[in-house]
Design goal:
Helix content: over 70%
Structural class: mainly alpha
Radius of gyration: 24 Å
Mean pLDDT: 86
Oligomer: single chain
Distance between the termini: 34 Å
Number of helices: 23
Strand order of the largest sheet: 1-2
Length: 514
């Protein structure tokens, strides 16, 4: 694979050299005509990073289905306690990722961390599962939820036409792919705007709840723990539901190489985002509990919409629009993260080289973005795409848990490695134990779907053996020819080149000791 990468690099420079001939202005420049590296630029600021994390964590779940925690816990008081515990647990995981993201200065999040800690096989299986199921299925579901809430106003008494919803979802996906192909700054601007919009909608819900409490409407909290479940299994399922709503805090780790001053801004963005989301989740649920009784909450398929119908009167349209905007922002964050995952996977030799190309002038991973969009459109053609989500409910926690286990492993095997952020091992140990619980719960509660998900992951084993593990001379020749043709064609069609990893930063980090 190394020889092939070298040949592709030579061909890349022949077709589209990564720097033009020096001009008089170049010779006068401070860098003395130094060649600029062909790599994505560090354009993501601290505010952009916070909006990426918050925007991906706060998806449609808090608007649509926060009832899972209440259903399994049995009382308002216990449900709020479980939401708080879920927030604290997520903070533990996010802190571990702050250390991992500053120690392993690569984009790709859990893929990059598993690759660094445990080698190529497990990392490839994580990548294969993401390509074949996780990323396209989740993006298809988010875009369909966006389309459903967008057209709900026009079909208040009946279900929207199937084809119109699918076409709007496809248009939404294609628009965001185009925006992120154009410029990184366009993608982060969209993320910032829609994160602010969804926060304003949640602030509206919270303010209504505060006004109701101020008016003395506190009957829901007179006996907050009455009826609480004492079944450990039910409490476990309630915690699982809460933790699923907190997922997405690893989004910024997918774009580590594009963050300005990552040693500072990555952990700072995580430290700011996690309390914001936890507090908003708690206050939003308090507002729901004040306005709606338990039977209404458990019967509703869209709790925020029911809330708006009850208190917002003629302005109740704000909630469906807010849910749609929340989905749009969440989809944008997912596209940014997934495209970087595919980009890094290709750069590491686990995917075709054509996916590791970036545009010569815009510095965006256009091939990876287009591939991501194509997979999403394919999954939009699957009628029951929502069922696919059930196949990987356990895998998210499995891969995150493996990443955090890698943190412990690297502490043991590389104790002198430079770590800008270094936690006490209490945090990763606790998180690994809890992740094991989160892997076991769906295996026990939804065994068939979980086994199907495991089967999909294991289908990558023969692919890894043939395309990655075998020596270059034993691999099928048509794969190498196809890879080279696809790379050359993509370079010419999209005006892209192979990238160069920023080895200077890695060497500088590696030369330091603690």
């Amino acid at each position: 694979m190394g020889d092939l990468r070298h040949k592709m690099g030579v061909m890349s420079q022949t077709i589209c050299p990564s720097s033009r001939a020096p001009s008089d202005e170049d010779l006068k420049a401070p860098n003395n005509g130094k060649k600029e590296k062909m790599q994505m630029k560090r354009e993501i600021s601290l505010v952009n990073g916070i909006c990426l994390i918050v925007g991906n964590m706060i998806g449609s779940g808090i608007f649509v289905s926060p009832k899972g925690v209440l259903m399994y816990s049995g009382s308002y008081g216990l449900s709020l306690l479980i939401w708080a515990v879920g927030g604290i647990f997520s903070v533990f995981g996010a802190l571990c990722y702050a250390e991992l993201g500053t120690t392993i200065a690569k984009s790709g999040a859990s893929y990059a961390y598993i690759l660094e800690s445990f080698g190529g096989f497990l990392a490839f299986i994580r990548l294969w599962t993401s390509i074949l199921l996780i990323e396209p299925a989740s993006q298809a579901v988010i875009s369909l939820t966006f389309a459903n809430y967008l057209v709900e106003t026009f079909y208040p008494t009946c279900q929207a036409p199937y084809n119109s919803v699918r076409l709007i979802a496809a248009a939404c996906l294609c628009m965001l792919i185009f925006i992120n192909c154009a410029y990184v700054k366009w993608g982060t601007l969209v993320q910032d705007i829609f994160t602010y919009a969804k926060l304003m909608a949640l602030f509206l819900i919270i303010i209504v709840g505060i006004l109701k409490i101020s008016a003395g409407e506190t009957s829901s909290f007179e006996s907050p723990f009455e009826g609480s479940s004492t079944d450990p299994g039910a409490i476990a399922l309630a915690l699982y539901s809460a933790l699923f709503s907190y997922s997405g805090w690893d989004t910024l780790n997918f774009v580590t190489e594009e963050i300005q001053n990552p040693d500072r801004n990555l952990p700072l963005a995580i430290a700011i985002s996690m309390p914001i989301v936890t507090i908003i989740y708690l206050l939003t649920n308090v507002a729901y509990y004040v306005v709606l009784d338990m039977s209404s909450l458990l019967a509703s398929d869209a709790v925020a919409v029911t809330f708006g119908d009850a208190v917002l009167g003629p302005f109740k349209w704000i909630i469906p629009v807010s849910v749609a905007m929340s989905c749009y922002g969440g989809l944008n964050a997912s596209i940014i993260a997934a495209s970087r995952l595919f980009f890094v996977g290709a750069r590491e030799g686990h995917l075709p080289n054509s996916l590791s190309l970036i545009h010569m002038e815009r510095y965006t991973p256009i091939p990876a973005l287009l591939f991501n969009g194509l997979m999403g459109l394919i999954f939009l053609c699957v009628e029951d795409v929502f069922q696919l989500i059930n196949y990987f409910s356990f895998s998210y926690w499995l891969y995150v848990g493996l990443s955090v286990a890698g943190l412990i492993y690297l502490r043991i095997t590389q104790p002198d490695r430079h770590r800008p952020v270094k936690l006490t091992l209490f945090f990763p140990f606790i998180y690994c134990l809890c992740s094991l619980f989160l892997v076991i719960v769906p295996l026990y509660g939804d065994t068939i779907n979980s086994l199907i998900g495991i089967g999909i992951a294991l289908s990558g084993v023969p692919v890894y053996y043939v395309a990655i593990y075998l020596p270059e001379e034993r691999k099928p020749k048509f794969l190498r020819k196809l890879n080279m043709f696809a790379t050359r064609f993509t370079q010419m069609l999209l005006y892209c080149c192979l990238t160069e990893f920023d080895t200077d930063a890695g060497a500088q980090a590696g030369s330091k000791t603690q």
